[in-house]
Amino acid sequence: MVDIEADGPAPGLYSMVSFGAVLVTPALDQTFYGRLRPVSEQWIAAALAVSGHSRDETMAFDDPAEVMARFGAWVAAHAGRRPIFVSDNNGFDWGFINYYFHRFGGANPFGHSSQNLGSLYKGLAKDTFVSFKHLRRTAHTHHPVDDARGNAEALLRMKSELGLKISLD
After folding, report:
1. Three-class SS of the chain
2. Which CATH number fits domain 2-162: 3.40.50.150, 3.30.70.100, 3.40.1010.20, 3.30.420.10?
3. Which of the two ends of the chain, N or C, has the fewest CB atoms closer than 10 A to its terminal CB?
4. Predicted TM-score of the model (pTM)
């Protein structure tokens, strides 16, 4: 489960500020957190404010190439033979992660696809107007590890309480 924070709406034009990942297991104890120095001169103050960081703070964050290399190693060590990227808003989150992996590492270990947590829940409920967010236990704080953990909790509840067929091995 992955969540990202960015200073604008589009990878490449704007920068990913931070991201978090949680391996979806009952313990939810394997996490990754990265903070990345901006890759673009453009940024939107309101978008950056969501992350709780200032532009000056982000300029002192880690080199994106180093963060993505560490994340790639973490995925390889923890996510099994075929990692599956899942997020609350995979169009946004996966877009940034995919861009950064290709820009700084040459390949995305998640491949070319991702899963949207909200869509999984809508399918289970057979209702395109429902939200899964009541299944979270961890508060949605906009710290990406907290948000990924809350979404992972929701996915585990979808599996255990609602019968979602998914392999988490």
Report:
1. CEEEEECCCCECCECEEEEEEECCCCCCCCEEEEEECCCCCCCCHHHHHHHCCCHHHHHCCECHHHHHHHHHHHHHHHCCCCCCCEECCHHHHHHHHHHHHHHHCCCCCCCCCCEEHHHHHHHHHCCCCCCCHHHCCCCCCCCHHHHHHHHHHHHHHHHHHHCCCCCCC
2. 3.30.420.10
3. C
4. 0.95
